[in-house]
Amino acid sequence: MSRPLPVGLVQAAARHHSAPDLDSFATEVAALTRTYPGVRLFAYPELHLCGHTRDEDAEEVMTAAAQPLGGPRGTALAALARDLGIWLVPGSVYEQGEDGRIYNTAVVYSPQGTRVAAYRKVFPWRPHETTASGTHFVVFDMEDHGRVGLSICYDAWFPEVTRHLAWQGADLVLNLVRTPTVDRAQELVLARANAIVNQVFMASVNAAPPDGIGRSVLVDPEGRVLAEAGPEPELVLTEVLDLARARSVRAHGTAGLTRVWDPFTPGQAPLELPLYEGRIDPARWREGLGGADPR
């Protein structure tokens, strides 16, 4: 039986790249825990700690901000989560990979101060984003609550990402966003669509001006909007989620009717997928749901 999970989606502008002061970020997060003492998970937008930039100096900012995940920034963030006793998703960060390339990586820290997940953005927004592409879909377990998947901004436009996370058993997908462009309206539709067709909670937390245009949103597994922000510069969307609701919707159907994870009959032949030079094997369609090893 899962416990309710109070979440806080922090719609905020990025911290300036010339002074990514982790001490002031720690003060900010500590203040939020006092204002919202019941919240167990705080999530920030894409690249929140790595500053805002224009295209012409993007490479310089990216290179200056990149660190190994186990570097000083990661150590400080882990300590912050431990000291405050919260689950912390400080947005994504520029990661200096062991292969010498820079990745846009979402990180998650537990209340024990452990980095429990790191997801490299699979679909950078080309040609504007020059980070290397990740190669793995990532979920993590929150004890007594459920399983959470990670995606970053443009990933939400590719249905394969959220489908893989749901197949890996995610009850909630955190989509960390930094969208300043007019297509935020379409992203709100995608948040609901991804929730509906995968029967998962979707949390899309966008940056505030000038780095984004806000309009963060939280959607339930049947596509209902639970909370939605406007273009305000600073706010926190809060909600209490029962992640077991996602599993209930999968078992009983959206609106008590549609069960998207039960379309195949026993022994049905695999469906070839020429687009991917791959296929859907009906025998494996439900395999990842409900606790199979996500790796």
Characterize the largest beta sheet: strand count, sense, and whether it forms a barrel.
6 strands, mixed
Domain count, please report it.
Answer: 1
Our count of helices gives 6
Gyration radius over CA: 19 Å
* Average pLDDT score: 92
- Going by CATH, the architecture would be 4-Layer Sandwich
Give unreliable regions as ranges: none
Helix proportion: 10-25%
CATH class descriptor name: Alpha Beta
Coarse structural class? alpha/beta
Distance between the termini: 24 Å
> What proportion strand?
15-25%
Instruction: Output the helix-strand order.
Output: EHEHHEEEEEEHEHEEEEHEE
In which order are the strands of the major sheet placed? 7-8-9-10-11-12
Gross geometry: globular
Organism: Streptomyces kunmingensis
Protein name: Carbon-nitrogen hydrolase family protein
GO molecular function, one term: hydrolase activity
Domain CN hydrolase: 5-243
List keywords for this structure.
295 residues, alpha/beta, Nitrilase/N-carbamoyl-D-aminoacid amidohydrolase, four-stranded mixed beta sheet, 23% helix
Would you give an account of this structure?
By secondary structure, this protein is α/β, with parallel strands linked by helices. It has a single domain, classed as Nitrilase/N-carbamoyl-D-aminoacid amidohydrolase (4-Layer Sandwich), CATH 3.60.110.10. 23% of the residues lie in helices and 25% in strands. The protein is built from 6 helices and 15 strands. The protein has helices spanning 22-35, 58-65, 72-84, 159-167, 184-198, 244-252; strands at residues 5-11, 41-43, 87-89, 92-96, 102-109, 115-120, 139-142, 146-152, 172-176, 201-205, 217-219, 225-228, 235-241, 271-273, 278-280. The strands form 4 sheets. The chain has a 6-stranded mixed beta sheet, covered by helices on one side. β1, α1 (22-35) and β2 (41-43) form a beta-alpha-beta unit. α1 (22-35) runs parallel beside α3. The longest helix is centred in the middle third of the chain and has 15 residues, at 184-198. It is globular and about 55 Å long. The mean pLDDT is 92. GO terms for molecular function: hydrolase activity. This is Carbon-nitrogen hydrolase family protein.
